[in-house]
Write a structure and sequence with these properties.
Layout (H helix, E strand, L loop, with lengths): L5 E2 L8 H11 L3 H16 L21 E2 L13 H9 L2 H7 L3 E6 L2 E7 L1 H4 L4 E4 H7 L1 H7 L10 H9 L4 E5 L9 E6 L6 E2 L2 E6 L4 E9 L7 E3 L2 E6 L4 E10 L3 E4 L1 E6 L4 E10 L2 E4 L2 E4 L5 E11 L3 E10 L5 E11 L2 E10 L7 E10 L5 E10 L5 E10 L2 H9 L4 H17 L4 H14 L4
Parallel strand pairs: 3-7, 6-9, 7-10, 8-11, 9-12, 10-13, 11-14, 12-15, 13-16, 14-17, 15-18, 16-19, 17-20, 18-20, 19-21, 20-22, 21-23, 22-24, 23-25
Antiparallel strand pairs: 1-2, 3-4, 5-6
Length: 447
């Protein structure tokens, strides 16, 4: 049993007093409190999203909006309370830090409980810390970028995050610095009826390179929890950013997140997005190709079991000439519902832009639901657009072929699905690809 240091009292819905209590607890500047209060007003005014899955089962009145496991985050792994350390050790966080990571951050409930960056990167000016730390130690940078890509006026859950955010990662990579190892943040929810609202802000300067890996999980509970995160990425001229997410939420979690990147001249941003578990996921990373030569990629994998809805996709916005984008979506229906919502916007003047979209669905169980809703808005006649979609069902003919080659149905299905998801698996770091295949074994290849 984890003993929590501080909790906000549960109310019908968050109030201005809730926000003031949270801000005082965090010792925040007045400008941030005012920003939170404005976001709260928007939260109360905005309706639930008019599209996507039915969210009527989510009771916002019963969410615990802030939970702090202990007083201060730790700089040494052994200083974390044993029960919490045991949880993250079982997920392989400490081992990964020792072997393959440049830095690691671990968040439990509403607080980052551990953060560390290797000295060689600190010496080059790289910053990797919690957003709560960044507010105090890098206030000018945070104030410059926070909320400029994802406004709290956009929708109800963006407003809720802005009002109540806690934790998350702040990453700053100076010009010309190439991180040769990834940094990882891991987010964990243990408590029932928990609301986790981390906020991540990544700024990569000219010619720099960053690989960021995010993992999320929660144990099985009986009552609904909410994960409503916001991510903002700024990839400046000639930089490269790779953002990998592997989310394996339990079946009681509503995963409703907003992610956005702004890509400047000749820079490149890749989203590698893996979605397993959750009751409902709504996630559509948006990439704004702001300046000439900017490139964006979104490669996603979604797996939906019975009782789960994976409503995922993304948007590429071409604002400048000679921009390029790729969206590749792989959805697996294993009795649940998977839906791809993808959009490409090419503005007038973005001449010779090139966009490619491919969305593939695979129905493993016959009662699965797999759908695709593409949107194309092309205002530039010189643009080149490619779009294709496919839907495949596992058939008796495939099963007979597998058995004719001496394979069990289970092993044959595994080979087929491995080939189907290879475009995603082949792009993520080897260490995480191995773990993801193990996760697929648990999620998909069970008899």
């Amino acid at each position: 049993m984890i003993n929590y240091h501080f909790k906000l009292p549960q109310e019908q819905l968050p109030t201005r007093d809730t926000i003031r209590t949270l801000s005082i607890q965090k010792n925040e500047p007045s400008w941030l409190l005012e920003w939170r209060l404005q976001a709260l007003d928007c939260f109360h005014q905005l309706p639930l999203p008019p599209y996507g899955p039915d969210l009527s089962g989510l009771s916002l009145e019963n969410i615990c909006y802030y939970v702090q496991p202990f007083e201060r985050k730790k700089k040494q792994w052994d200083d974390i309370p044993q029960q919490i350390r045991k949880t993250f050790d079982s997920l392989g966080i400490s081992l990964a830090e020792q072997e393959v990571l440049a830095g690691v951050g671990a968040q439990l409930e509403s607080q980052v409980v551990y953060e560390q960056l290797k000295q060689e990167w600190r010496d080059q000016g790289v910053v990797f810390c919690s957003m709560d730390t960044a507010i105090h130690e890098h206030a000018d940078l945070v104030k410059k970028y926070l909320g400029t890509l994802v406004s709290f006026r956009e929708h109800k859950f963006a407003a809720l995050n802005a009002a109540l955010w806690s934790g998350g990662s702040f990453v700053y990579v100076p010009a010309g610095v190439l991180l040769t190892a990834p940094v990882q943040a891991y987010f964990r929810m243990e408590q029932e009826r928990m609301g986790q609202f981390e906020r991540t802000l990544i700024v990569v300067e000219k010619g720099a390179c960053l690989e960021y890996v995010e993992g999320c999980s929660a144990p099985v509970q009986t009552e609904s929890s909410l994960h409503a995160a916001v991510v903002e990425i700024f990839a400046h001229e000639e930089s490269r950013v790779s953002y990998t997410t592997v989310q394996n939420w339990a079946a009681h979690v509503y995963n409703l997140v907003t992610k956005r990147a702004c890509v400047y001249k000749n820079a490149h941003v890749s989203w590698l997005d893996g979605n397993f578990g959750s009751k409902i996921t709504m996630k559509y990373p948006t990439t704004i190709l702001q300046e000439e030569g900017a490139c964006g990629e979104l490669i996603s994998l979604s797996v939906a079991h019975t009782g789960q809805e994976q409503d995922t996709g993304g948007t590429m916005v071409h604002k400048a000439p000679h921009t390029r984008s790729l969206m590749l979506s792989k959805t697996l229906g294993y009795g649940g519902s998977s839906c791809y919502r993808g959009g490409v916007v090419i503005n007038q003047g973005a001449h010779h832009a090139h966009a490619r979209v491919q969305c593939d669905g695979f129905m493993i169980e016959p009662h699965s639901s797999v759908a695709s809703f593409p949107r194309l808005s092309i205002q530039e006649p010189t643009a080149r657009i490619e779009h294709e979609a496919s839907l495949t069902a596992f058939s008796d003919e495939q099963l007979r072929y597998i058995r004719s080659r001496g394979l069990r149905a289970h092993d044959g299905m595994r080979l087929i699905i491995q080939g189907f998801i290879k475009p995603f698996i082949s792009r993520i770091p080897l260490e995480y690809a191995v773990e993801l295949e193990r996760l697929c074994d648990q999620q998909v290849y069970r008899e």
